[in-house]
Amino acid sequence: LAVMRLTKPTLFTNIPVTCEERDLPGNLFNQLMKDDPSTVKGAETLMLGEMLTLPQNFGNIFLGETFSSYISVHNDSNQVVKDILVKADLQTSSQRLNLSASSAAVAELKPDCCIDDVIHHEVKEIGTHILVCAVSYTTQTGEKMYFRKFFKFQVLKPLDVKTKFYNAETDEVFLEAQIQNITTSPMFMEKVSLEPSMMYNVAELNTVDTAGESESTFGARTYLQPMDTRQYLYCLKPKQEFAEKAGVIKGVTVIGKLDIVWKTNLGERGRLQTSQLQRMAPGYGDVRLSLETIPDTVNLEEPFDITCKITNCSERTMDLVLEMCNTNSIHWCGVSGRQLGKLHPSSSLHLALTLLSSVQGLQSVSGLRLTDTFLKRTYEYDDIAQVCVVSSEVKQS
Question: What's the family (predicted)?
Answer without folding.
Answer: Belongs to the TRAPPC13 family.
